[in-house]
Amino acid sequence: MMISRILQKNSINRLTINTINSIKQSSSSSYHTTSKDEVVSMSNIKRNDEFSTLTNQDIKHFKDILGGDDSSRMITDKDELEGFNQDWMKKYKGNSSLVLKPKTTDQVSKILSYCNQKKLAIVPQGGNTGLVGGSVPLFDEIILSLTNMNQIESFDDVTGVVTCQSGCVLETLESYLNAKGFTVPLDLGAKGSCHIGGNAATNAGGIRLLRYGSMHSNVLGIEAVLADGTIMDCNSTLRKDNTGYDLKHLFIGSEGTLGVITKISIITPPKPTSVNVALLACNDFNQIKQILIKAKKQLGDILSAFEFMDRPCIDYVLDHQSTAKEPFDKKSPFYVLIETSGFHEQHDAEKLNAFLENIMSEDLVLDGSLATDTKNISQFWKLRETITESLGKAGAVYKYDLSLPIDTFYSIVEVMREKLKDKAVVTGFGHVGDGNLHLNISTPKQKYSKEFLSNIEPFVYEYTSQQKGSISAEHGIGYMKTGQLHFSKSPASIQLMKLIKNSMDPNVL
Ligand code: MLT
Ligand code: ZN
């Protein structure tokens, strides 16, 4: 998962806090085509010349810190750098000539302290699975990869608290915990690559937030390194600790702008032993709303996910995933995926069946299917979890991650369809149980274009703001929304964020 950059001096440079200090700029997103020579557009952000340029002397210093310059510790090879310079959607791209891969907090501290003194720009990077350009350089920033900081340090099977380094891959952590009968309270499509530190840095949401809450609810402790190299040990494993400000929350969701997360302690729940997934087809969004109300009441504590996708999403998945199957004989405008997880097979099945009977008797579904075994459950999840990848394969896709009130939740999709007509395919899916819509505007076989973007922005942000929604429910601000924060935050909130940033990283002006 992406971690944003440590900000140093001047808001014009990527190293300064891209979410907060750049808000006065009228910058648009930086889009790139898949070809590195064909940059479609670049925002008006220019490299700040107050930042230094990397020298051989600097590289030698980093080599001394890391104990060598083999590719497991640092990367300078142009081809190898490519994957670190670009995000996986191939939308944002920088031109860094150095990746540093520390193994310890002490090494991170020494690197940041040196960069701070030398005014060398840095961008921290986790699994680089972010969607808003927060984990890649824009210019020549040094990339600080947390990949080598992947050790799981301890697990307490009474409290369920696990402590690990921030570069631990989410799926690896999940396997480790599963073997002990526990589970990470977070699950998302990018689990095979994203890092738990990036998940915390971006306050990643995902499909189980409905059941377990956000990273703010589950992270008990964080160790982070500040821009000047200070190691902030807030890595408590206590459930309760009311001694002053709870500083770890500053690092959760601040996208790496206040420090680099190096270690994390999370409270993990026991892994449910009985899991069921129902896939339902609906005719309109109002039916989904009614089903959600009933699911919350009738399934209660066993409800673990409530996701929706519209028909175009299913079409993209069927077009681009060879093993995905059309779920029902007849196509429908909407689909809902409901997961229950519990510990009493019979009790859970009875509850779910009663709920399904109820919604069918009230004509809220057109079709339905229940999966109780691992193979069928994963087939259903595949339809939901491969939407992003499938849309990405089709061509340029403009992605918006909005929190919206349930009564007007889907209307932005219809409004955008009306606005764009046949210029694009507008789809909606996401975590409807959490009020989070993923609005995706796909332009098959086309490249990202600034001209096309003007059909969408700022309209989509203005619309969201009028609905009192959020322009980022879970993906974060990154580079994509640096100029848009004011659509969701008051001037006073933004001012306070700047004060916090400047007090933790005084090199930023
Ligand atoms: C998801 O829910 O699948 C992710 O947030 C990715 C996306 O929005 O494309
Ligand atoms: Zn999502």
Offer a concise description of the structure.
By secondary structure, the protein is α+β, with helices and mostly antiparallel strands. It has helices at residues 56-66, 78-85, 105-118, 170-178, 196-201, 209-212, 215-218, 248-251, 285-299, 311-320, 345-361, 374-385, 387-394, 411-420, 450-453, 459-466, 491-504, and strands spanning 74-75, 99-100, 122-125, 142-145, 152-156, 161-165, 219-225, 231-234, 260-267, 274-282, 303-310, 334-342, 367-371, 395-403, 425-431, 436-444. The protein contains 17 helices and 16 strands.
Structural notes for this entry:
The chain is of the alpha+beta class and 509 residues long. The chain folds into 4 domains: 23-40 and 55-147, Uridine Diphospho-n-acetylenolpyruvylglucosamine Reductase, domain 2; 152-267, 2-Layer Sandwich (Uridine Diphospho-n-acetylenolpyruvylglucosamine Reductase, domain 3); 274-385, Alpha-Beta Plaits, CATH 3.30.70.2190; 387-476, Alpha-Beta Plaits (2-Layer Sandwich), CATH 3.30.70. The chain is built from 17 helices and 16 strands. The protein has helices at residues 56-66, 78-85, 105-118, 170-178, 196-201, 209-212, 215-218, 248-251, 285-299, 311-320, 345-361, 374-385, 387-394, 411-420, 450-453, 459-466, 491-504, and strands at residues 74-75, 99-100, 122-125, 142-145, 152-156, 161-165, 219-225, 231-234, 260-267, 274-282, 303-310, 334-342, 367-371, 395-403, 425-431, 436-444. It has a 7-stranded antiparallel β-sheet with strand order 13-10-12-11-15-16-14, sandwiched between helices. Strands 5-6-9-7-8 form a 5-stranded antiparallel β-sheet. Helix 9 runs antiparallel to helix 11 and helix 10 (311-320) packs across helix 13 (387-394). The longest helix has 17 residues, at 345-361. The chain is globular. The protein starts with 55 loop residues before the first helix and ends in a 5-residue tail after the last helix. The relative contact order is 0.14. Mean pLDDT is 91; it is low at 1-42. One of its GO terms (molecular function) is FAD binding. Residues 92-271 form the FAD-binding PCMH-type domain. Keywords: FAD, Flavoprotein, Oxidoreductase. It holds the Pfam family FAD-oxidase_C. Its cofactor is FAD.
